[in-house]
Amino acid sequence: MTRPRELGVTIGSLPPGPLNAITDVAGVQVGHTTLVSGMGALEVGRGPVRTGVTVILPRPEPGFSRPLFAACHRLNGNGELTGLEWVRESGLLTTPIALTNTLSVGTVRDALIAWEVRHRGPGGEVFWSLPVVGETWDGTLNDIAGQHVRPEHVFAALEGAAGGPVAQGAVGGGTGMICHGFKGGIGTASRQVVAAGERCTVGVLVQANHGRRSRLSVAGVPVGERLPPSRIPVPDEDDPRPPGSGSIIVVVATDAPLIPLQCRRLAQRAVLGIGRTGGLGEHSSGDLVLCFATGNDQLPLDPPRGPDALAVPVRMLDNRHIDQLFQAVVEATEEAIVSALLAAETTTGRDGITAHALRPELLAGAMAGS
Question: How many structural domains does the chain have?
Fold first, then answer.
């Protein structure tokens, strides 16, 4: 897998974390289950299958025991990210985050609840759960109506979730996704800043399935114009929907001590990273962002009881230092999208439709003007 920096493409000015991934935020883990089978004509229920599920664990232990401050933002709402009403109401993230295709959201949501039941044990505890599951539409390449993502695939992604390097491109929930007319999928990046004397990390993971070729820009260079469909075909040329109808989900993580309002402000800035690569949040696009912060690490899910019932210690970054985090979100979002494009491999799906990869040499040539 080639990263933008290996091609001499530097996005922004802030330094990345050691892995240049969302897992640079301590405790964050990512897991994928990738489903690929079949070739040829579409036969609903049989394939071809080009889909999967990606999970993000905000902390190593189940989140329902220790929630995190969180917030969300909508650029355009023709998409789904479940559980957001409770995030907006409470300012808390209490479950893992999962990404999949549009028609598998329900299956993945139910599987996350079943996983929580397993972890809570056989004690018969009464609980509620509002899992966070995002989607983008992979029906150009995948037998999406066949709903091939099953609970066991979600369990496998959860069990395989780990810190360290993150697989990118046509993996997990990104297996069948298309971005700016190229093969898209999962991408990640990170940035480090010093805010109020503390080193803070911002990590971003995207499921990129949005944009049109003519608008694609990398580090300010209009590479989409230099790689038109006449040179590299687009897979959805015969799609009756207007170009740019796809979607993107952005997950932002930081170890900065933020409160929910500040998380919302970071989530808003991810939109600028989408825009810098040429995304517009078109009418038919679902462009949703979730941001969570691990810097307040001892929040109780249930109110404390006894004489300290009103005392929940919380740290908050002075807003005079938040601009650096805004810059980190914008740069990491832009680079995560480009990384998704570079990591993805040319994929042929249903009915022989092919999404071509943005190969490193193509991007390097376009950046150089050839």
Answer: 1
Are 148 and 186 contacting, i.e. CB atoms less than 8 angstroms apart? no
Q: What is the mean pLDDT of the chain?
A: 93
**Residue 24 belongs to some domain of the structure:** yes
Structural domain including 232 reads 12-300+316-367
Instruction: Confirm whether 98 is domain-assigned.
Output: yes
Give the residue numbers annotated as catalytic, written as ranges: 247, 285, 287
Mutual angle of helices 260-276 and 322-343, in 10-degree steps: 50
- CATH of residue 187's domain is 3.60.70.12
Beta strands per DSSP E along the chain: 29-37, 49-57, 68-77, 92-93, 97-101, 132-136, 178-179, 182-183, 185-195, 198-209, 247-254, 286-293, 347-348, 354-355
- Find the Cα–Cα–Cα–Cα dihedral 107, 110, 111, 116, rounded to 10°: 170
At residue 328, the 3 state secondary structure works out as: helix
Full-model pTM: 0.95
The pLDDT-based confidence of 179 (bands split at 50, 70, 90) is very high
- Whether 221 is in a domain gets the answer yes
Please indicate, yes or no, if residue 39 is contained in any of the structural domains.
yes
Which tens digit of pLDDT belongs to each residue from 27-71? 999 999 999 999 999 999 999 999 999 999 998 876 666 899 999
